[in-house]
Structures are given as C-alpha cells and as structure tokens.
Amino acid sequence: AAVTGAVAEALGVPASRVFSSSTGVIGEPLPFERITAKVPDLVAALTEDAVEMAAQAIMTTDTFPKGAAATVQGEGGVIHISGIAKGSGMIAPDMATMLVYIFTDAKIGANQLQKMVSRNVDATFNSITVDSDTSTSDTLLIAATGQSEAAELKGPTLKAFETALAGVMRDLALQVVRDGEGATKLVEVRVTGAASDEDAAKVAFSIANSPLVKTAVAGQDPNWGRIVAAIGKSGAQADRDRLTIRFGDILVAQNGWRNPEYSEDEGAAYMQGQDLVFAVDLGLGKAKRSVWTCDLTSRYIEINADYRS
To answer: In the prediction, which pLDDT does 189 show?
Structure first.
C-alpha cells in the first residue's frame, strides 16, 4: 500500500488504478522505503522510452530485456499492442517468477479483454517451462487505455485484435523460455495422437521437464530413449508399439522401434541447432499439446547456487 499510494500521489491518479507486483527472495521483507523515496524522481524522468526502460528495470537474472508489439488496422484508426516481460528461472505454468505487462490503446471492455486473455493463456504462458519450479510472483497484467482513434472493437476487427494479442503473448512467452537461466537452446515439444487433452499435456511437460532430456539437449546428444522414458513416467496412457518420434523432420522411431534409416550422425547434427523440435505421436487419439522449454546447463546451477551470495 505504501508503494502504490506513493505512485498514485506522484501521478495524480486514484490508488485503485495502481497495481503492484514484485519478485525477490521469498520471505524476505521488501525495503519499500527505498522505492517510495525515488518515486517522484522516476515520474519526473518519464519519457517516450519509458516502456523500454521498464523492460530493462524489471530484469533480474534475465540476460536481455523482453518486448513485443503489434498493430491492427481498426475502423477509423490504428490500434497498438505492446508488452514487456521478465523471467528466466523458476518458470512453470500457473505460478512462476514471471512478470508480464501488456498495453493497448484499443477501445475494449475489461470483461471482453479478460476473456481473450483466458482463451490464449494456455497456449502461451501456460505452455512454457524452464525448470518446473514455481514461485509466488506470477503476473500477467493487461491494460487498455481506449486512446486509439479507432472505433470500439467489433466484428472482424475484434477477431484481428485477438489474433494480434495472442501473437504478442506467444512472442513474450517464448522470449522468457529462450532466456532460461543458463540456456543455450529453445526446445519445442509437440505431442499429438494422445487419448485426451490431459494426457497430451502430461506427456509434453514430462518430456519438457525431464532433467535427462534437458541435459541431453545441452550436450547435443540425440538420445531418443530419454524421451521414451519421459513418456513412460508421465502417467498418461501410452503404448510403446504405437510411438513415433521425430527430431525436426528426421524420423527417429516408428511403431516404438528405431527407424532403420535413421542415422545417429544425422540426429547429432540436428542437435547442434539452437531451435529444436521434438515431435511425439502417441498413436492413441486426436488430442495434442505443444510446450516450450530449454536445455539444462551447468550455468543454471551456477546462477542458482550463487543467487544470494
């Protein structure tokens, strides 16, 4: 309340219009006096580059500021969407050390905007995982100012806006996982042919969160057996003899057995890339799910072992 109150006073806006979020060491008191003492100076320093400055200011173990933007041609004017994000460790669905702020000048009601976010969050921010660990700071905040000259959103323009918003959300989500602590590779895990949506998610996250899979990626080792093991421990319905596994376009295994034409050298060459796709078809149904993760390197251990020292 002290921080939000100081910001509201400095900006001349109602305190109900100021929202707070933070990250840091869990359980340690926040020295808020250091923040409130600087609020007037921060307000005075606001410029057109304020969003970029904010993206840099919220970084902790992040290695680069994260931002994304899109425009939509509305009826009578252009609609803008821009967002920034912070996050690189303790990232897992629903609860993460992740802060995301998206702004638009569209004329749209809060309830309508909330429905759009809810429809698109599962395929974006709730489909990324860096280390399967969670935190207490998960925030996705979207604000609409209504300042665009475009008319209130409706019809085709409303659909185009949601598509653009989903694109910004996906862009920011992938930037977060690409910047995973110590990460050198971005990995997409595509699961198809699952018996249910729940099973598809179980398998996708089991693979994405497997330390053995993630360290194999770090070591550029095309050990597809680790993917099979992750499927087996997921708790989802699976049949080894129906499994198909691909590294990108490379058919590694089919019907549960190694493809006779698959070359280990070909798989190793693929693993040297920075953006990888592991595709798994369970052969049991029509459900599917894609999630994104990164490799697990010794740098991750260094960052977290030295976090407070």
So the answer is: 98
